[in-house]
Structure formats: C-alpha cells, structure tokens
Amino acid sequence: MGQMQDNGPVSEPLVLSSRGRVARLSSLFAGVRSKLTADRKLQFDTLIDKIRNVDEAFSRYSFPPVPTIAILPHTRCPYSCAVCYTDSSPSASEKLSLRELKSVVGQAEAMGVPFVQFTGGEPLLDDELLDLIGAFPNMYFLMFTGGGHLLVEKIARLSVFNNVLFVVSVNGLAGANDAIRYPGAFDDAIDAIASLSGCGIPVGFTSILNRATASNLMSETFLSEMLGAGAFLGFYVRQLPLGRRQEMDTDLSPAEFYTAAVAGVEIAESLKLPLVILPHDELFFQMGRGIPQIRPDGFIDACVCAPSSLGDQMNIRTHRLIDVLSQPAYVRIRSCQGDHMRCMSGSYHVGFGEKL
C-alpha cells in the first residue's frame, strides 16, 4: 500500500499545537452549542460531559478508551466517488441487520461510549437507521452522508431527533465538487445544509483534503458558502491511501497538510465557523485515530485508518464488542497514538512512514 511523502520532521504550527488546539476546540464546542435549540443543548451538553470523562469511564477496562465507534451499516451508495475510502457503489449488497446494529450500539452504550458515527455507503438509503437513532435517545450519533437530496426528502422524520448531528460531504465549490461526486451534488449539499439548519437540526460538512482539493477548500469563498448555508461546523479530513484512493497520486505531505490546515483554520476563525482538522484534532475532539470501525460484514477494524481482518474472533456476529476490543492485537494498534499525524494504513504510520 502506498505511503504519503515523508519530507522529514515538520514543525507543528502554533495554531495546531496542543495549546492552540485546546483553545480552538473549546471555542468550537461553544460555537456549536450556541446554535442549538434548548432541547438539543441539553443532549449536546450530555455528550460533551461524556467525552470529557471518557478516560474515567473506561478505566475499568484493559484496553484504551473508546470515545466513539464508526459503523458502516452497508456500503451501498448511488455514486462511486473517487475519494471514497470504503469503495462504496450502487452494487454493494452486504449489510448489518437492524438487530445487529441495535446489539452493537447497545453494547457501546453500556460500555460508556459517548457517541456513534454512521458512515458508508449512504446511510440514509436505509430507513432502519432512523429507527435505530430513535431507539437510543441517550446515545449521540454523527451521520456522515453524501445524499443531500435524501436529507431534504426525510427532513420531517429527522426533525424529531435531538441526538444526531448530520455531516454532508462537500469537496469544493460546484465545479470541483461535482466533478468528484455527481452533477448537481454541490447544490444538493447546500440545499440540505440550509433545510436542516433552517429547522434547527444540527448539520455540518466534511471535505477530503488532497492536492487537488486543498486550494479550493481552503478559500474564504468556500467556507463562506458553507457558513451562509447554515453549517454549524466543518470537518477537514486528510486523504489517506485507502480504497480507491490508493490509485490517486494526490496525497498531501505533512508540510503541505499543515500549510493547508493553518490557512483553513485562520479563515474559519475569522468567519467564526467551527472547523475540525483530522487527523490532528482527534485527541481533543475524541474521534479519528484509534477509533474502532465495524464493517458491513461484521468484522471490526481496530482503527478506521487500519483496515484489517484478524480472524473470526474479531466479528460482532460471533463475539461481544468488549471481548474484541480486549484482544492484544487490537489494544496494540489502538495504542499507537502520538502528538502528530500518525494515522495508520496497513502496517505503516502514514505520514511519517514509520513501520509498526
């Protein structure tokens, strides 16, 4: 598997340093909270409290804390975007059943996991996920979706939930985004963000950072469009060589990533738009590196950036989540966290090319 360029040690900019991140992400939480209705503020406060106390909640276990779990209910999607790390497509058929999803979310809640992420595939293609969200009112959910039009179509059902934040995929302004996704995708995303935020539903955007998208994404024009549509916050995610991305020679080196990230953070702060940079902010925002990922076949990756199948003992269909996370191989992989961009791909720390 290919690695990103490693240009040697890179000095961490102040705005992305530990001190800078604490201040910035504290401001981010406050900024998101200020836009919520009273009922949603209560649920959000509970989430933040759980995140801040996750180390204590997991102190009784023999494995690192699990602040969130990423679940791919299926990899079915109307589109086959070049930047998709799960290789989703219209023909994908494997999926987790509602019973299996309820079981694993219930186990996560009992362990003290603060929130669950749904990605895919297009999660909104399956109405069962909305039933699942309703069945766990005390669990918080992040739903990553590329289906702007689906959000608008289902807004009546979505508006009843106080425990979910929707995150819409947008990879640049109309021309750049639609070339990666599908014609009209940008307008669909803007409509979805505007419709949800107009109803008081928390909604943000997520964008993949690579050499082809960075200049477009890290512009005041793009961020102003997102803010103007009503986005509560944004996620910038550094492209990793996973899935179809292995064929793309557009990965950012650490120096290029820092340059782009600092530019984006400075513009976002001037606009008062909360912005999360991944991989980088996860040690404070508690998502990203070292986060278990459950695939549609039931296998659990120790980290979203370290896809692997280590045997049937790693499948939620045969073992409890707590038993899987206690496996030595899982503990070892999930413990590989540092202060820099040490996201993993295969047997490498992508970014600095450091073998396990």
Summarize this, please?
This protein is an alpha/beta fold and 356 residues long.
Descriptive report:
With 356 residues, this protein is an alpha/beta fold. It has one domain: TIM Barrel. The chain is built from 15 helices and 12 strands. It has a 9-stranded mixed beta sheet with strand order 7-6-5-4-3-2-1-8-9. The relative contact order is 0.15. The N terminus and C terminus are likely disordered.
Q: In total, how many beta strands?
A: 12
CATH architecture: Alpha-Beta Barrel
| Mean pLDDT over the residues | 78
CATH class: Alpha Beta
**Count of discrete structural domains:** 1
Number of helices: 15
Read across the widest sheet, the strand sequence of neighbours is 7-6-5-4-3-2-1-8-9
The gyration radius over C-alpha positions equals 19 Å
Structural class: alpha/beta
Poorly predicted segments: 1-10, 284-288, 338-356
Sheet bearing the most strands, described?
A: 9 strands, mixed
Write out the CATH superfamily name: Aldolase class I
In terms of DSSP E residues, the strand content is 5-15%
Overall geometry: globular
